[in-house]
């Protein structure tokens, strides 16, 4: 025992430091690189953002400390309040739709049928495209006079729509693009979940005479729940901070009908150069993302789905 | 052999193409010392588009003339503006020459003192060709380039006037004459409007922010002024309200559906596909309109002045120029580049390709240059006519972007039926404190 303890004590003594009970100093060099990286790329930018948010900080003008004035400005800024609302609606829709359609697609593609591999590959193509490039294609398809979408509607006898060119339809239209692109991702995740389910429960369900819906509702769904949570978490974080598709298609318009927090933030920081105010928006935006993610995690905890042994 | 000789001479002549060569007997004073800074390398930060690309394309001619190497970076407009501001704020910009969008950046750059004063260089015969004089620039150009003290902080390069594009075929079909006033234009648009066949009387920018360039032409022709003597913004007065009502009438009754989301691109698509009878926008769109690969209306489009309003007839002007960063250590070499950029040779190329309109009168008034213009003669007439009635299209303030966003949103809102007076008042109240704050700091 004592022979093992001694070298550690010697090392500590050699550096001339008082003995620390909590950790041998010889670990330090290994912790340092990670610590430096974390400090430089996470802690420092954060602290600096908060620091900037407490200043009247306009590019090209001297900065002055204003305390919480930038935060106090937020609730009375109609554009900001509106953008929070747009973000929430946009996020809710772009989580729910891909989740629903992706699960459906996963169930379909889980079944065995000819050319399944090829069709699966085809189905995940949208996911691989560059958002800005597909945004430009969709912009052309949305054109009320010349776009193909209105032509397709006319084929089935529906009146032309204004799509992204009208305040009332702009967010659903953008969500359509988002859904088109990200349903495959949900499908892949859920497909992985379905593949992991053992076949025994299904066999016994069939013997007991369960219908297909019952099998899905009482066997597949509970067992793929963990995967659905992961998918919705990924989708939510992506949708909240979505920028490229919205910016490339509408730039937040018409008016400010599709301006999400991210787009407004971009304008304030890089078009109005109001860095202080933009930092305050970032801080609030971050809090919102943490709150949403927290709510989802809380939900996950409450369902106990991952407590294999029932540990509460 | 002869060809090479001619082009070499043209190159060597540089800015003084016509003047200096013809009068080669004059004392040395007639030509600046082009080669004095040979071997220097300068960086130019340019805006993507016909202007920036033209400068990049012919940069080797400048190098042949001066021995100065140019590294030019051509970036899309919005990103270029951001990059410029961020780098200039840092105090160590990566560029010597900067392409400035006057209508957005003039006041901001002036207040921050980012650009070098070129007045001294312009008086120095060792640096400046004799044909480059302050009064050769149009009045609008000088308004953009000079500060309150009359110092030149950039050289005006290209101006964009707003004109009326009209589809002659559609007009002839309905027996409608070219409108001379806004009221006539609204009536004409209503006659030409034929939604059943997918044809609309008028198209234009409805998208927030972008729409301000169109709206201000209405505002000017209804007698509007952006600022009063004390620098207060005046966009909620009776002129603004009447102008907005006309804008609203045209864009809601006779424009394609979805126009509230249209920028120039969507508007131009309507015109070039023969789906819109009239369009008001900058002069620079003639090349795509006359390009058979991109347009179905080649040869059918007429070019005219923006119709008169009740208080006058103006053409809203937007412009860009080339300046030198105050922080640059190669100002003389950079100045030679700026001078070359706005030279008669380059100005002629700009005008002849239809990519823009040089600010220099000596280029616009040169018959030889005019003859080389590839666009229809009517286009050139509309350019020259617009030059005479041009007014700055945006207020000269720092928060131009906020102004365009806020008032632009109000104007867009009227397209879904909101009341112009109420919307403008709301926008005014939102914008006034922003302007006051920016002027205070």
Descriptive overview:
The complex is a heterodimer of chains A (312) and B (441). Chain A has 312 residues and is mainly alpha-helical. Chain A has a domain of 191 residues: Orthogonal Bundle (MetI-like fold). Chain A is built from 14 helices and two strands. Chain A has a two-stranded antiparallel ribbon with strand order 1-2. In chain A, a hairpin with a 7-residue loop joins strand 1 and strand 2. In chain A, helix 2 packs across helix 14, helix 4 packs parallel to helix 9 and helix 11 packs antiparallel against helix 14. The longest helix of chain A is centred in the first third of the chain and has 33 residues. Chain B is α/β, with parallel strands linked by helices and 441 residues long. Chain B folds into two domains: 230 residues, 3-Layer(aba) Sandwich (D-Maltodextrin-Binding Protein, domain 2), CATH 3.40.190; 205 residues, Periplasmic binding protein-like II (D-Maltodextrin-Binding Protein, domain 2, 3-Layer(aba) Sandwich), CATH 3.40.190. Helix content of chain B is 46%, strand content 13%. Chain B contains 21 helices and nine strands. In chain B, strands 1, 2, 3, 4, 5, 6, 7, 8 and 9 form a nine-stranded mixed beta sheet that branches. In chain B, helix 11 packs across helix 12 and helix 20 packs antiparallel against helix 21. Chain B is globular, with a radius of gyration of 22 Å. At the A-B interface, helix 13 of A face helix 5, helix 6, helix 13 and helix 20 of B.
